[in-house]
Amino acid sequence: MNIEITIASNDSDYFQSAELITYNEPWKSFKRTLDYSLKKVKNEDSVLFVAKDENKVLGCLLLDTKGQLTMFVRSLCVSHEVRGKSIGKLLLETAETYSFEENSNVFLFVSENNKLAQQFYYKNGYTKIGEITEFLISGNTEYILRKTTGPTEE
């Protein structure tokens, strides 16, 4: 396997990424449609990083670059067949390098019941800075995580 991390550049990258996101957690539980996911991955205020072997997208990370929380990881998804092979870590590191060129913070939400994702993010240097109850779905709490290189302004 020869994994390459790039910014999505064609319809196939966008479609395969939207499929990955739609049919995996947490978007699967949120009942997001493929159409919804396609709109998100093609949003001009976002950057879609893809992990590819040949032309097959094995993982993706959607980074919102504008909005209330700039450099916000909206979604990180890796295909079941290649989990545990550091693809998620490579995608996250690539997005962080991109983000830290212009901003000192990267933010993301992780569901309180998604313990594996929490472990992954804490292991990769993220810190819980808050939580929001009943934000995405009823009865659920989202943790707000941040990785920083320092204050935004000095």
Annotation keywords:
154 residues, alpha+beta, seven-stranded mixed β-sheet
Instruction: Tell me the span between the first and last alpha carbons.
Output: 44 Å
**Total beta strands:** 7
Look at the structure and give the mean pLDDT: 92
Which CATH architecture?
3-Layer(aba) Sandwich
The CATH superfamily label reads Gcn5-related N-acetyltransferase (GNAT)
Residue share in helix: 25-40%
Q: Which CATH class?
A: Alpha Beta
The largest pleated sheet is described as:
7 strands, mixed
The 3D shape can be described as globular
Overall number of structural domains: 1
Return Rg in Å: 15 Å
Strand order of the largest sheet: 1-2-3-4-5-7-6
Low-confidence stretches: none
Beta-strand percentage range = 25-35%
Task: Please give a structural write-up.
The chain is of the alpha+beta class. It contains four helices and seven strands; from the N terminus they run βααβββαβαββ. The protein has a seven-stranded mixed sheet with strand order 1-2-3-4-5-7-6. β2 and β3 (about 55-65) form a beta hairpin. α1 crosses α2 (about 35-40). It is globular, with a radius of gyration of 15 Å. The termini are far apart.
Briefly, what is this?
This protein is an alpha+beta fold.
Write the topology of this structure.
Blueprint: E1 3-7, H1 11-22, H2 34-41, E2 46-53, E3 56-64, E4 72-78, H3 87-100, E5 105-111, H4 115-123, E6 127-133, E7 141-148
Parallel strand pairs: 4-5
Antiparallel strand pairs: 1-2, 2-3, 3-4, 5-7, 6-7
